[in-house]
Amino acid sequence: MRSLARVLGTLNFTDVDCAPVFLEHSGFVARLAGISLERYLTEADIMVAVKLEAVKKFRTDIMSLGLDSCVEAEALGSKVVFSNSAYPYISSSLITDWHQLDRLTVPDPWSSGRMPLILQAAKVIVEKDAGEHFIVGQVLGPVTIASQIYGIEKLIYLIVDDPEGFMELLKFTSQVTERYCEALGETGIHAIMLHDPSASPDVLSKGVFTSFIAPQLKAMFERIKKRQETYLWLQIIGNTTSVLHHMADFNLEMVTIDTAVKLPDAFHSLQNKVVVGNMNPMLFRNATFNQLASTLRQILEQRREFGYVMGTGCETPLDASEEKITYFLELIESIKCHG
């Protein structure tokens, strides 16, 4: 079974030859090839070559297209500091008061910052991959964009001191997310992943998620679905066990769970969603081969028959071991696709 058919079958909760595998390789593969992170994150042809080589080298079913957590903020006007040894970062907050939102304009993804780089790369990859793999584009969620342009510490104070201001900020950043989603949908990819790590209950608390974030995300997903036909995928890091029931109510198809979330809990709460996870990507840097084998056994004992993708909670670390990743994937092959 081809990778694309395997993932589409999983999305339909039908029988497939084996659970799809998703290891979120990005800058790790660029460094493996001796390419600087800055070139990988700023040149479309380099990104295309790295992504196609990664899926060929490691034989995973899903190809994820994303750069770093600064793309949306940069498109809004934030200054980004690049490094050849680490992912870039925002040097200072773009705004210091939410009332300054009137200075900002929702960026056009086809002409703002590095957004066009992703869109160009997505089009080329869709053409070159020729329907072999399930291709997903990454967009930052509204809470994380807000934390990038406002600063996470100030954002926490804003929630406490001026919750209405916090909601106004989220309304604006949701527009940024939605506009980028719309553009990505025009490239021919199969799905869009909204990566929103700052929305985690580990960062802003369960109460904040329930009262402020969940209603905003739910409304945003509804608007996206009305405008375009695409699979939607939500990825929030940390222990999201306490808010999985909110995610079950969102109009989307896939949810990533991080290592702190137990697979049985996720399957129970997300019966109507494809669950992706809950492997710790740091295993590919720190684990022994025996520990990798033990991790796979635990997953096989807990997985459900339909609607599950074996994957990591977030991206492969830059200093991961190629040997350990290869060993893990070969172990999967050796047991005939988890059978």
TrEMBL record:
InterPro entries: Methanogen_methyltrans, UROD/MetE-like_sf, Uroporphyrinogen_deCOase. Pfam families: URO-D. The lineage of its organism: Bacteria, Bacillati, Bacillota, Clostridia, Eubacteriales. Gene3D superfamilies: 3.20.20.210. It comes from the Bacteria. Residues 6-333 form the Uroporphyrinogen decarboxylase (URO-D) domain. It comes from Desulfosporosinus nitroreducens. This is Uroporphyrinogen decarboxylase family protein. PANTHER family: METHYLCOBAMIDE:COM METHYLTRANSFERASE MTBA.
